[in-house]
Write a structure and sequence with these properties.
By secondary structure, the protein is an alpha/beta fold. It has a single domain, classed as TIM Barrel (Alpha-Beta Barrel), CATH 3.20.20. An 8-stranded parallel β-barrel has the order 1-2-3-4-5-6-7-13, surrounded by 7 helices. Helix 6 links the parallel strand 5 and strand 6. It is globular and about 55 Å long. About 3% of the residues have low confidence.
């Protein structure tokens, strides 16, 4: 795993023109979470990284800056140093603390003070019950899009139904810094199928630094524990195939695929093992109605791997 602290300082360049299929699949897909493990860079470094990525040639892949509610003021102070007049406002995803009311107050205050420079238009809220969801829905303003991180156990169907009925969005944790933090492929498929059936948009977070499932160190420390990491291309394409009504066995097999050579991207769509095809329209539908983005503590690692695959 490459240390993301070496990711910085992309120069101002012309934006690249990717293959249509990868362009549709990855537009705005990577929320930068450099503040979080295993990267956990300083606020200064994270903000400077994000500014560089926004002005770099792969800015079209960049989503929101991810920060906890308790560090919003710290973010604003650092980001103000590098924000350029005339830039579009930076979009921020705020990870709520246990006190949803306090986190929401922080977001509302931030948006009021920082209008024109930064906008916290997304909140990510960890929940484990319908009561948690109902309570947060009463507190979070409708101007902020909320993603609710929900468990993948027997509570999943009820929680997905509650989110769908309330017009909210879901979030899945797909990894961490220990092997046990990575859910089974079948549980991820189950989550995506449930969200798709409920017409519930969702995002993913953690453990998705690489496009294809692989065995990698789980942190940037020397002699770090290794484990299987899910691939973001596996996940995004699986989500598109779910909408195509594919069987669980095929979806789980796709999630478990570790051979990049089994994927072929071109201007008309994507093929997996030749016979399984997704058109540009299907990819657009999966992104618009389904998987919105994924959080990654590195922006460069995904790009480097896509380049190595020859599709970027």
């Amino acid at each position: 795993m490459q240390n993301p602290q070496g990711d910085i300082r992309a120069s101002d360049q012309a934006v690249t023109r990717p293959l249509s299929s990868i362009g549709v699949l990855m537009a705005g897909a990577i929320d930068y979470a450099g503040l979080f493990p295993p990267s956990a860079v300083s606020m200064q470094d994270a903000v400077e990284n994000y500014a560089a990525y926004k002005r770099g040639e792969y800015s079209w892949m960049l989503g929101r800056f991810v920060v906890t509610a308790g560090r919003l003021n710290e973010f604003a102070a650092e980001a103000a140093k590098v924000f350029k007049a005339g830039e579009e406002p930076w979009r921020v995803a705020v990870v709520a603390g246990e006190d949803i009311e306090l986190s929401t107050y922080s977001v509302v205050e931030f948006n009021s003070v920082e209008r024109g420079r930064f906008v916290a238009d997304v909140m990510e809220i960890k929940t484990s019950s319908t009561e948690d969801i109902e309570n947060a829905c009463r507190i979070v303003p409708k101007t902020v899009t909320a993603y609710y991180e929900i468990p993948l156990d027997q509570r999943l169907p009820e929680l997905v139904a509650t989110l769908a009925l309330r017009g909210q969005r879901a979030k899945i944790r797909t990894g961490g810094i220990t092997p046990e933090a990575f859910p089974k492929a079948r549980d991820i498929v189950r989550f995506v199928r449930a969200c798709t059936a409920a017409n519930l948009p969702f995002k993913a977070t953690a453990g998705l630094h690489h496009p294809i499932r692989c065995q990698r160190p789980l942190t940037y420390e020397p002699n770090a524990v290794q484990g299987k990491m899910h691939g973001f291309l596996n996940l995004f394409l699986m989500a598109a195939f779910v909408r195509d009504g594919r069987h669980n066995d095929m979806l789980e097999e796709l999630m478990m695929t570790e051979d990049a050579g089994e994927f072929r991207f071109d201007q008309t769509g994507v093929r997996w093992r030749n016979d399984n095809v997704l058109t540009l329209f299907q990819l657009e539908q999966a992104r618009y109605n389904g998987i919105q983005s994924f959080g990654s503590c590195s922006f460069i690692e995904p790009i480097a791997d896509l380049k190595a695959m020859g599709i970027l």
